[in-house]
Amino acid sequence: MEIDWRYERKFTVKDLSFDQVEDFILGNSYLFKEIFSVRQVNNIYFDDIHYSAYYSNIEGLSERKKYRMRWYGELIGDIKNPILEAKVKKASLGTKFHFNINTFKMKRRFDPNIFNNIFKDSQLPDDIYSELLTLSPTLVNSYRRKYYLSGNGLYRVTIDTDISYYYVSQNINHVLTKSDHDEIVVEIKYAHEDDNCVENLTNQFPFRLGRNSKYVQGVSTVNDLLY
Predict the structure, then answer these.
(1) Residues 13-27 pLDDT 10s
(2) CA torsion angle for 148, 151, 154, 159 (degrees, to 10)?
């Protein structure tokens, strides 16, 4: 199976409104147009007891992996068509492997122990399921995402706003604790063979390129909230 490696360039925007950010994207010479509908994106991240995925990102390890479950729409309620994603990074390139997960009910009174049964019943590959048995939920997040595609079809940009993080306790029936985050995150995604022209595109943005990881930001945010 051929693996689709791509770049994800992330920009953290603190001093501009959403409308201003969108104006810069739509005014870019690469002729971006909005695609899809605005969606609420929800994620549950999984890590081991040592928070290895968190610290591998903090330390900037060239090869790393993290698991998350993603769905669209309401955060709480009957979750249909959730997807488990294994995100793999090698240096600046990344790829994702997707696995269908059975429908489940997401409650505000969060029970992390339900996921072992969900994974067991979802017919995951044996190696993936074995690895998940060593992990547990460590963060929930949610945000509003808009999508744009360049005129040549090579570059996709997303704008994430209304970002919220939720602390996850390993105690049964823990009520999710919410922390809002007022930054805007812009991402540019494209195939590795199209990297030669991306500087012309990004130089037209007044945004700061960074190593923004919502998982790292979320864990840090909820830890500040708690301590």
Answers:
(1) 988 999 999 999 999
(2) -20
All residues at 6 or more sequence positions from 204 whose CB lies less than 8 Å from its CB, including other chains = 24, 27, 28, 29
List the single range of 87-96, 106-115, 165-174 with lowest mean pLDDT: 165-174
In the chain, the domains with their CATH numbers are 6-226 (3.20.100.30)
pTM recorded for the entire structure: 0.93
What contacts 24+ positions apart, CB below 8 Å, involve 175-183?
175/108, 175/109, 175/110, 176/108, 176/109, 176/110, 176/140, 177/222, 177/225, 177/226, 179/221, 179/222, 179/225, 181/217, 181/221, 182/14, 183/12, 183/13, 183/14
Distance CA 64, CA 137 (A): 18
